[in-house]
Design brief:
Length: 482
């Protein structure tokens, strides 16, 4: 196993112990956060007929829920930084449950947007972000593996909920099903109870680990002397300004918008998320549109989830190897590109067998991407700034998350065919995949240059210190002789 990137946490992460119980809690919490909006697509056809709405209007239900989950990221970040992950996750579970129960009494599609979309979506935000953050406090060396196992919760929960939702829909209708789902999602409160804060009294061991991918360590080493000198020249007004900025950074770190790796990640993800969720959201409705029966359509989601379930921990193990981890951003770029290729080929595959083949290969692609999605962000910004980074990323990504499925649904309404929607999603994944390859090559090149420069600066600083000491010793010797 390769050495982990250096951190400045002030303690040594246990890399195990109770951390595995935390991973299990994150497994449940993340599972419901990502799988819940996808599993609700089973009810789309019945709700669409009940309220007499179009494809694009019914697609807004999952979109509003996903967008609310992403928009609630900064609020979740602030609450996690203030109160910790455990209470935030438990409150989120109660919110999602309340939203589903209230939605079961809905009389209009707007009522569902409000209850399932807004209330349920914000509840999922309080489940997702704390679960991702706490893993970084418990794991350092085994962090890619821990993240991969936790992200496996999404396909496992989806694999279970897809056939369960079809059974509930046939037995109780969508209203009774929403009421039952409101009780099931309370398991997130149990998951939150497992997220005990890490013991930070253990001091870090001296290491010779390489700097993190963001190059922050090298930049700080290169400018250490300059910073020390400029600190003495600060005026009282500047000090007050720094204090006020520190209050803001205590809750969310806005300086990330000056971070090269973070900006590369953010720009690519904005484009990518226009085509990220729509293929999953419309997989079961597409199968039903092609004349496939309801259970076979739901089974496609189960196949997708089953493959996804196994590829996520495998991706975590592969990402933790000494060959992949030092350049894990390239692995992420390949996963994005692979998703785009799957969507472009899907319309060319014939019949239900073609749908099954697509579900398998899309499960591989989606699982790889999902397992790496937050690990590469933590690799770029480090565990200390990860909570703020997730909050900022999710609030910005909520735009494409919100608009992606409805725009795809509008393509279906216009052309009366799903293939153009999948072509569009393929392009939205293919372009950022190529972009990531190019920009991460540039980023790695710049980081290598910065590291070499920091070494040169450190050597020069040491030489100057030695020369200064020798000159001082010489002067002391002359004074003694005198």
């Amino acid at each position: 196993m390769p050495p982990a990137a250096a951190t400045k946490l002030g303690y040594t992460p246990p890399d195990g112990g109770w951390g595995w119980a935390v991973v299990f809690g994150a497994f449940i919490s993340i599972g419901f956060s990502y799988a819940f909006p996808k599993s609700l697509t089973i009810y789309f056809k019945e709700i669409q007929e009940y309220f007499s709405v179009s494809y694009s209007e019914i697609a807004w239900l999952s979109s509003v829920m996903l967008a609310s989950m992403y928009a609630g990221g900064p609020v979740s970040s602030v609450l996690v930084n203030r109160y910790g992950s455990r209470p935030v996750v438990m409150v989120g579970g109660v919110m999602v449950s309340a939203g589903m129960v209230l939605a079961s009494f809905g009389r209009t599609i707007m009522h569902l947007y409000l209850c399932v979309g807004l209330i349920g979506g914000f509840g999922l935000a309080f489940n997702l972000q704390p679960a991702l953050t706490i893993i970084g406090t418990y794991f350092q060396v085994k962090r890619p593996l821990a993240n991969g196992l936790a992200m496996t919760g999404s396909p496992v929960v989806l694999f279970t909920l897809a056939p369960l939702n079809q059974f509930l829909c046939d037995t109780f209708g969508w209203r009774g099903s929403f009421l039952i789902l409101g009780s099931i999602v309370l398991n997130c409160c149990v998951a939150g109870a497992l997220m005990r804060p890490v013991n930070k009294n253990v001091r870090p061991k001296p290491t010779t680990e390489p700097p993190e991918c963001n190059g922050e360590a090298t930049e700080k080493a290169a400018t250490a002397d300059t910073s020390a000198q400029s600190a003495n020249l600060l005026t009282e007004a500047n000090q007050d300004e720094i204090k006020s900025q520190g209050c803001v950074h205590k809750f969310i770190d806005l300086s990330l918008f000056k971070h090269r790796g973070f900006l590369i990640y953010l720009i690519g993800n904005i484009v990518m998320f226009f085509g990220f969720f729509a293929p999953v959201v419309f997989l079961a409705p597409y199968a039903k549109h092609q004349g496939i029966d309801e259970y076979s359509a739901a089974f496609l989601l189960s196949i997708f989830a089953l493959v996804d379930m196994f590829i996520r921990p495998a991706t975590g193990l592969l990402g933790n190897t000494k060959w992949i981890r030092p350049r894990i951003q390239y692995f992420f770029s390949f996963a994005v590109l692979y998703n785009g290729v799957c969507h472009l080929i899907f319309p060319l595959l014939p019949g239900y067998v073609g749908m099954v083949v697509y579900a398998v290969f899309f499960g591989l692609a989606f699982g790889m991407l999902s397992a790496l999605l937050f690990e590469v962000l933590m690799d770029l910004v480090g565990p200390q700034r990860f909570s703020s980074a997730v909050g900022l990323v999710t609030i910005i990504e909520c735009g494409p998350v919100l608009l992606g499925p409805p725009l795809s649904g509008a393509l279906v309404d216009i052309f009366k065919d799903y293939k153009y929607m999948y072509y569009a999603c393929g392009v939205f994944m293919l372009v950022p995949g190529i972009y990531f390859f190019i920009m991460h090559y540039y980023n790695y090149k710049k980081l290598d240059e910065e590291r070499r420069h920091s070494v040169v600066v450190e050597i020069r600083t040491c030489e100057e210190a030695v020369q200064l000491k020798m000159s001082q010793d010489g002067k002391t010797g002359h004074e003694t002789d005198g």
